[in-house]
Amino acid sequence: MKKTMKIFYIAPEVAPFAKTYAVADVAGAFPKALKEMGHDVRVMMPNYKCVNARKYVLRDVIRLKDMRVPEWQDEVLVSAKSAFLPNSKVQIYFLDNKELFVRDGLYADSQKGKVFADNDERFMVFIKGCVETLKMLHWQPDVIHCNDWQSGFLPILLKMGGDEDGFFKNTKIVFSLFDFQTETTISKSALEKAGLDTSQFSADEVDASGNVDVLKAAISRSDMIVVENKDRALGKQLKGEPVSDKIKALLASASDKLVELGSGIDHSVWDPSSDKFLKSKYDIESVEKKQDNKKALLANLDLTYDAKSPLVYVHADAEATTQEDDLTQIIPEMLEMGISVVLLSRGQNGKEQELAAYNEKYPNHFLLQKYENDLAHQLMAGADFYLAPAWEEPMISNHLIGMRYGTIPLVKDDGDFSETIKDFSKSAKNATGFVFNGSEERGIVSILKTALELYQNTDKWENLIKNAMKQDYSWHSVGPQYIEKLSRLF
Q1: Which of 72, 77, 167, 295 has the fewest Cβ atoms surrounding its Cβ within 10 A?
Q2: Domain 6-264+476-487, CATH among 3.90.550.10, 3.40.50.1370, 3.40.50.2300, 3.40.50.2000
Q3: Could you tell me which of 469, 464, 394 has the C-alpha nearest to residue 434?
Q4: How many CB atoms neighbour CB 313 within 10 A?
Q5: Residue 328 backbone zone (phi > 0: left; psi -120 to 50: alpha; other: beta)
Q6: pLDDT given for residue 271 in this prediction
């Protein structure tokens, strides 16, 4: 087993530079933990329009300016700028090409909602640019870690003649899957631009139009496939939108190299003892200061503070209507129980108007608010409970952040979130949260009644908070598992 590894981490988006889904959070945190373990880790993503070059001090790298994309039909030049992941020494490169990446939206037009028709070409150029960057830096990684369909061209490229000089002959390819719904193809025309043709692929990787299934081709050519939860990935556990049948079958066919890797949180970002967004910083020895944060938060939101009335934070991050259907049924019952609710949402659909009506109906105890980062931090510190909805996407770690802040998670028993929670009903002494069963509506209401009783018992409530805050779900706890799994490839 290698003592240290050189790991090149490719992601379509990295927080805080750009974020539309969970891959960004992981890419912005996990490499930092690996670096602190002593590994040489570098990250790369496209230089989108939304990346704030001044704020994050992106710098030109002379040897990485105006690199010609190799083996591309038309001449395309790319450059790579350099910065560091915040609060770390992890170097990150941004592949720069204004025509391809400086757009209103990462994968679709943010105004019209239409997916960019040339996404296959955009991310093929990105991958070729990543490969060229490594060669120009003369940096040969032991592992290239790819994430989702946007980086699926890399294992295809390197295993199909794209490594003629043997630069990557000793490099292993890891492929992580977050998006279990998107089935993307590389068009025949894009393949031709890259100097490839369908005859180089197996028959089951190519459709009738000559397009190549990205995930199928990438997974078959990767050395290790990473998912957060094997059961969910294989369709045995469903949460939110189900895993597509095609992806489920694809992962089942690659089960011999499928590994499970849990999620974590970034303590440099989420730590109540140092969180710059809080009125009162606190730790496990000063949990009483949570009340200071609760008072300040509710005052700022024009909601009523009552020490005997718990505050529930709900983060609805999906666009699916099923979540709002559930919430419109649940919230009135929660409010009638004397609970205050703040719902942060990124969604944009018809149900938001119905939910917003509760702002007027329950002006002192309910608020629907658009997601803001500073408010999310303040809610984690000021809320008493975090409701982790079953529709929340995989690798989102809000329930783990909740425990870190002493904000008790309420999660559904779906074999995913619930596996990281010690349920109060099973062990009151060691509990870190509440796990509910049954339908979404009835399960939440039922478990809240139990939670409310405990909330009124000061000693038991404080014990629950401290149990939760003791848990270690940092990426540092995940890192050794990952390295151990990597070592099996060598």
Answers
A1: 77
A2: 3.40.50.2000
A3: 464
A4: 26
A5: alpha
A6: 95
Do residues 370 and 344 make contact, with C-beta atoms less than 8 angstroms apart?
Answer: yes
Where is pLDDT greater, at 248 or 29? 29
Q: Give the sign of the dihedral formed by CA 24, CA 26, CA 27, CA 33.
A: positive
The pair phi, psi for residue 367, each rounded to 5°, is: -150, 125
3-class SS at 77?
A: strand
Backbone angles phi, psi at 327, to 5 degrees: -65, -35
pLDDT of res. 243: 74
End-to-end CA distance of the chain: 7
411: helix, coil or strand? strand
Parse the chain into domains and list their residue ranges: 6-264+476-487, 284-473
| 301 touches 342 (CB < 8 A) | yes
The whole-number pLDDT of residue 390 equals: 53
Q: Which of 232, 318, 361 shows the shortest CA–CA distance to 21? A: 318
Identify the CA nearest to 82 among candidates 103, 101, 64.
64
Q: Residue 316 pairs with which residues in a beta bridge? A: 345
Q: Tell me phi and psi for residue 315, to 5 degrees.
A: -115, 105
What's the CATH fold of domain 284-473? Rossmann fold (3.40.50)
- For the stretch 153-167, pLDDT in tens is 999 999 987 888 999
308-346 per-position pLDDT tens digit? 899 999 887 544 434 444 677 788 888 989 999 998 876
Cα separation of 27 and 44, whole Å? 10
* Pairing, β 67-68 against β 77-84: antiparallel
| H-only helix segments in 282-425 | 290-300, 321-336, 351-361, 373-382, 398-404
Q: What is the CA radius of gyration of the chain?
A: 23
The pair of three-digit structure tokens given for residue 45, joined into one six-digit string: 């993503």
Measured CA to CA, the distance from residue 179 to residue 84 in angstroms comes to 26
Q: Which amino acid is at 383?
A: A
For residue 105, with 0-12 CB atoms within 10 Å meaning exposed, 13-18 middle and 19 or more buried, which class applies? middle
Q: Which residue has the tokens 């002379």?
A: 62
Common-topology check for domains 6-264+476-487 and 284-473: yes
Helices 22-36 and 475-487 pack at an angle, to 10 degrees, of 80
